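chain and backbone:
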Amino acid sequence: MNQIVDEDVPPEVVAADPFDADLSPARIKRAAELFLPERQNSKGWDLADRPTLTAIDKARGAYRYTGFTAAPLVAGGVADGPSEPVQNPADADDTVGHVTWATAGDVDKALTAARIWDAPASERAKVLNRAADLYQENFGPLFALLTREAGKTLPDAVGELREATDFLRYYAAQAQNHDAAPVGTFTCISPWNFPLAIFTGQIAASLATGNATLAKPAEQTPLIAHFAVSLLHKAGVPAHVLQLLPGDGRIGAALTSDARVGGVCFTGSTETAQLIRRAMAENLTPGAPLIAETGGLNAMIVDSTALPEQAVRDVVQSAFQSAGQRCSALRCLYVQEDIAEAFTEMLKGAMDELSIGGPWDLSCDVGPVIDDEAQAGIDAYITAAKTEGRVIKQLARPNAGHFVPPTLLRVDGIGDMEREIFGPVLHIATFKADDLDRVIGDINASGYGLTFGLHTRIDDRVQHVVERLHAGNIYVNRNQIGAVVGSQPFGGEGLSGTGPKAGGAEYLLRFLRHDTPEVEDIDERMDAAEVQTLIDRTPFETGEIAAADLPGPTGESNRLTYHSRPPFLCLGPSRQAAEQQVKAVRELGGVAVLAYGLDAQALETLHGFSGAIWWGDAERARAYGCALARRDGPILPLITTVPDKAHVTIERHTCVDTTASGGNAALLAETG
């Protein structure tokens, strides 16, 4: 369109289809080619296209009333046990299927039968790519299951299937860049809010690196997990490599406290992650990796320069899509007081346009919350807010099903929120123009750091906020949900998780074995006061130390940056070993201090550090690991090998809708 005012350009050139031109894929790529040559992009479904909708209705309609089954899939075999019905959260009369739960005996059999996948990485990649194809071919039953068992709307089901297939193909490609041995046996515990995507992402990473994998899905969504594992087995994943153990928290506890487990991947609450960390420290090999993604109190700032219509659209999507049941969902909205009144009225009007009801219908915007426990907890929170006069807007509730109507509450700021409300509840606060830094400070002070949104037309303000905000994923002038594998690696910091980012280049390193250098025993010791002084005196900057631009669609900028974590304690055991550890951390861009021979109990009270490295005996390693696990707050690792980049740095991703600031200059340069 930039050519339209150039009189030297003929009209037929201006009106020509750009894809008919002789343009190389490096300049303009079709959607399926976006991530080539690394991998094929996932298949999309155009929900505004009538033939596509007809095909979807035919494919999933065959499973509208099908009764599915789920049971343990253990290589050693399981005994038949009692089954329980699985109900549709939107319709109590719809029994989606039945599940047979795993027992403690099944866990023991699975651990005994578990074997690493000793095929070459290229062969594992072929199998995982075949599984991705099977996922897409089975979109009918998967869409039906995602809607009936998990309460997903059709757009959410499409997004979830695409993310799952992207994970399979991305990790299959990434694993071929590594030649290290697998950790051994990995436990993967996934949540109900992304019962296909996160479930698949965890096990795909474990399988791609050759680990024996024990998958425990959420209690609420075992049918989807069973269907997915069956497809993975059909694709060629050996039965002794991938085993399924549906069950409650007791099964999860057994799978995270058995010495035969080599590592754990978990997505869920911060409290549960801390319990898992303690169980691992007491029972697993010291230093066993824990990858935890644990949600957060996510905020968005809208200043007076933002386009209100665009900001309101993105607020509604971020807060209420998926019934607010995303760990990335917007929880606290800050609006500059100059525009707050008009903006709030527009937001209330947009909420009125939302359709709440059965998610099988395409017209549905907001489906149910997952179960009666979730509904009761959110309802109680809203009721308390009503007694305080803080409810600004609440929509009507359907007569049946586990529904919570989208609700807007007034707060003074994020500090008023004691915990995450995992549902369609949005808190709104106002701020003065000169209070921006105070707002940023309050958001950082929450201790969480998962997602953040910003709407502004001032480029300098974007830079100002991005440099100061401690969040794993920052979204500018767009919604803050829906991270794309390989384009927007996802994961937080602080109370929001351990890293590395899922769907990012550092993720697979945690599933691989790393060397432990041979070192001398302790020859001298440092005391806690001396180490704390070193921590306090060590210069520590949070600015970026490395960056990379990532692929993405036209009109969007995706940039990944690396930042130093607070200092790592280098425990030795000897001074010489500690100095080697300091060197290794610094070469990766991290910060480290000497702490050789430090007493284990000191790790419970020292502050201002982000983890510890120990290359000595296992007994002392366990004491160090247990001391770190007893700490409140963010999970701090004990590293018993040579550290990797994601250990000592924080990954932060910034996604910018470049069309919001007048267009994509890179595209104009290509087509000009």
